């Protein structure tokens, strides 16, 4: 029988992600108490996540300003903690090694010292919009946007083409590569730079940036009001108008009402990452094709943009074409992913780019060399565990199942596992092949929020409708952990260079086939400092335990098969009740 380690060793370069990854957004964890010493907490959290049998590794989102607070001052502690815990795990569990994906985000998350350097040298563009004027408008380097709809550390955006910004970002990436680039656990990094607050091809535009997003009393939805109800910025201009004025000033009139400047900077970013990193998988994240400021109707033959044929999607498709065909010089591989995966079944027949585009690219390139294949991946749009009975129906497990059905649609994974045969076959519109493809797509990895992994470790069985809802109903007893187990097993089966059958772990069911008596534990998983304390030193030190053989298969201390008992980072407060 093959071991996982044996099989992975034969495909070491380019290093590539495979399986389910637990995503941790470091700044979101730290923000409630930024002055605390978080090292013990992260050691504890990382080990808990790695101990879950369904988790192949960690996906860390690292905001630039968190780890580079001053020039020549890189604080990698929280990231180093992750690599150390993965190294500890792999030493103790050589048959099940785990890996790390990095998502490092600039844009609105740029350090204040970078913004200050831009302002002192090039000035802010705000004066050209608010009527106060600016002496350096031609080469100004930052602009303020109010009400951008994604989490960010500020509202001042460095312009994607600003040379001070690009140089500082390049220097930071060189430092990151020196710190972690040769670590065998480091398998992928997401390309970023001409971005807002994530690694996605999204910038402030008329649909995602409006003051009402910041209005606590009367907030608007994710999509900004349009038409007569459209909300301009406080300077009286819509985001697209601000971009147009800046493009005209910097590039000239031929660049107005066009996304060409953003396309060029994304191509520069791809070249930058290819030049710095080596033997990794470089990931691009095109989102839903609607992220750029200009979206006029544009005829195109590109299959990624046939649903709406707008200029934002065609610009993103142009970047993807460049990514598909650029010359590899450092042994890096390629991947594309969508980071807003939801439960609605999406293909290229009812949406642009998105998860359908990810599958299209992975299928088109699956017979290429390992360096030219474009792996497919996705990230849950939200933590399904936040979908509790108070705000969704009927339970988080149903939400998890529905999102997985969308993810595995168009792949051979719709047939399920030996434990759950035909798992997604009865969901409406879910098939093994999605047109315009004529074959099933391979997928390599899935990122789920760490809160969901902790939820799966702490909650039992639920009844889930695997027929997609509506007038159809076919229920099975399943846990969140069951579904994570199934997702990981399926990815090891359908990924590029998929595991041989003997190397794929088989997860026995957590739940019995009968209707369960559900016990939900309302879990407070907290390694936060105690009230009045600014450190987490009161937590018991976490030394990785020596794990028994049955822990590898998902058993420990009487926990059901396929489940891992969480190692408490602090006393776990539970309120057990039936529902």
Explain this structure to me?
The protein is of the alpha/beta class. It has one domain: TIM Barrel. Helices cover 30% and strands 14% of the residues. It is built from 16 helices and 14 strands. The protein has helices spanning 4-9, 26-30, 39-50, 64-67, 77-92, 112-121, 126-130, 163-180, 239-250, 260-276, 311-325, 354-364, 396-408, 450-458, 480-494, 549-552, and strands at 19-25, 55-63, 99-105, 142-144, 156-158, 186-190, 281-284, 333-341, 374-380, 445-449, 461-465, 475-479, 519-524, 573-578. The strands form 4 sheets. Strands 1-2-3-6-7-8-9-10 form an 8-stranded parallel barrel, surrounded by 8 helices. A two-stranded antiparallel sheet has the order 4-5. Strand 9, helix 13 and strand 10 (445-449) form a beta-alpha-beta unit. The protein is globular, with a radius of gyration of 24 Å. The chain starts with a helix and ends with a strand. Residues 1-10, 514-567 and 570-579 have low confidence and may be disordered.
Overall residue-averaged pLDDT value: 85
Shape descriptor: globular
Order of helices and strands: HEHHEHHEHHEEHEHHEHEHEHEHEEHEHE
How many DSSP helices?
16
What's the SSE blueprint?
Elements: H1 4-9, E1 19-25, H2 26-30, H3 39-50, E2 55-63, H4 64-67, H5 77-92, E3 99-105, H6 112-121, H7 126-130, E4 142-144, E5 156-158, H8 163-180, E6 186-190, H9 239-250, H10 260-276, E7 281-284, H11 311-325, E8 333-341, H12 354-364, E9 374-380, H13 396-408, E10 445-449, H14 450-458, E11 461-465, E12 475-479, H15 480-494, E13 519-524, H16 549-552, E14 573-578
Parallel strand pairs: 1-2, 1-10, 2-3, 3-6, 6-7, 7-8, 8-9, 9-10
Antiparallel strand pairs: 4-5, 11-12, 13-14
Helix pairs in contact: 3-5, 10-11, 14-15
